[in-house]
Amino acid sequence: MSELFAQSIDARTRYCAVYGYPVKHSASPAMQNAGLAVLGLNWRYVAFEVHPDNLRAALNGAKVMGFVGLNLTVPHKVLAVDMVDCLDSSARAWGAVNTVVFEGRSKDGAWRPLREFTELPRELRSCGFNTDAEAITRAIEEDLQVQLRGAKVLLLGAGGAGRTAALRLAAEQVSELCLVNRTMAKAAAVAEEIRTRHPGVKLTIGYPGGSVELLVNATSLGLKPEDPSPLDQNLFPVHRAGAVYDMIYRPAETPLLKSARAAGCRTANGIGMLLYQGAKALELWTGQPAPVSAMRQALEKNVYAA
Prior knowledge:
The chain is an alpha/beta fold. 34% of the residues lie in helices and 21% in strands. A hairpin with a 5-residue loop joins strand 5 (99-105) and strand 6 (111-113).
């Protein structure tokens, strides 16, 4: 990190972080520190492994220590909805928090981002945002050239990331969304929510017959070498998907993506999603446009050179 910053850490350095469990795979520090360096800020972005049982305490700890903001990754995004002090409309819409902005109450009584304060105010609060949803569809469309409107999509996973992806895909007016999850009840709950909010989308619980334009893995299966595949190819051979998107970006090619590429599918990993959600988070914290090109370069170097 030292080559990024002309100024070393001092008593005025401000901090952002990512919380996850696990978190050692995260490329967010490389990406976000590259962005902070380009912006010329005396800030640093670090990663902390936080067990879900300790998430509330860790959120409060970052708040009272004057952190500017946080990112949250697996498995914290849904848990944090009930732990932050307020929710932005994005977090309410998608039911998950992946970005936290810490705010202080100014002398005029207004809540303002901590970047606007030189001294830590006495009254503090955490505000939850969701920058994942827009990033998911932007990355899929850019990386795979898939037209989501009218597409038939198979989505693996109905947890925090899966639920957000399902709702966002439905909002993009896919023609049919097939939901597969280890716990059927969770998939059914997401399907019912989509039926209420987007009644024009056809929903299937379980693997579809025939082919799909897009298969999306929103589970964490693939992060570890010993993980089983998230896709049961006895029920749905991967060649029946025109394109396959895996939200995992490390390893850069999961076994699912490797098998999809071998079957002739277009493939992409989660780097694009990570980039766009991270760029939006940086803009929320700093109030400045994110240097996306520098962030992408640092991200790709970190992931593909590993």
